[in-house]
Amino acid sequence: MGKKNQIQKINKENNQLILEVESKLDLLVKGQENNSNKLEVILNDLRKGFIGLALRNEELLQSNDQLKEQLDDVLKELNTIKKEREEKAARQKKWAKRKRLPKRDPINLEIYNLLMKESEGPTYIATRTRIAICLLTVTGIRIGELLSLKVGQLETLIKEGWISIDRLKRGPANHKAFLTSEGKKIVKARKRDFEFLFLMKDKDSHIFTSDRKPNQKLRRETITMDVNKVTHSVSNFLPSKPNITSHSFRIGYISQLWKDTKDIEFVRQTIGHRSLNATSSYVSEMGEKERQDRFSRINT
């Protein structure tokens, strides 16, 4: 039985008790008080009636308290839901008004060669920067994903043509990045840098470490600053002044993979995106001639 129906029942019973008490009082007023026996019966009935009424009122108060507690719980839950919705709406509004970065241009082979030339030097930092630029170019991984790589993984990349990547964002936690034919050529050209690294570190050491503390993994801000310093220098040198940053390597890798395969699902799985929408934002639309050529190759 619901609380509302229970309270209605108690009120009804209270009303009946009140009517009985009033009836007994009427008898008392009408002269029945001269009859002691009847008077005693009436008084006993009145006592019972008042006791029953008091018990009913106590039960009614308890039910009201329970209803109040339930109402308070419902209001708290509604306020929590309201607060969550308001916070979600605020986040969406903030995201919609976020400051958007200027469109970044992709890294191509020509720009890559200029970056290598710009980062020439015998120092450990120069070598570290060249290896970072190389890996970003041939794997398309995020710059933050470089930091967990170890020397043993680099050896696997050179010997077997793939490297295991721990993804920073949603997607496969342990993802293999495979080299293309062009990627294998790029890696082979950096043989001297890799051999220098292998002489300095063992297999379990991180590739990217501080020059002063070789056992300390490098901070993301440091490797980003080193790479961006080279990309900005090359950008200023080029007539078109392209906007190239540490993320341009990923854009270039995805763009080239799309041009080579025209398979958006393959590109998505290769790059580790969770949705096709994320991948499609990196690739350009096909031209009319290209779409016509692809239709002509479909067997009917």
TrEMBL record:
Q: Which GO terms describe its molecular function?
A: DNA binding
Which parts of the sequence belong to the Tyr recombinase domain?
102-297
**Pfam families associated with the record:** Phage_integrase
The answer on whether this UniProt entry bears the keyword Coiled coil reads yes
Instruction: Tell me which UniProt keywords the record has, alphabetically.
Output: Chloroplast, Coiled coil, DNA recombination, DNA-binding, Plastid
What GO terms in the biological process aspect are recorded for it? DNA integration; DNA recombination
Coiled-coil positions are 57-91
Which superkingdom heads the taxonomic lineage of this protein's source? Eukaryota
InterPro entries with a match to the protein in the record: DNA_brk_join_enz, Integrase-like_cat_sf, Integrase_catalytic, Tyrosine_recombinase_XerCD
Protein name listed in UniProt: Putative integrase/recombinase protein
Q: Which organism is it from?
A: Plagiogramma staurophorum
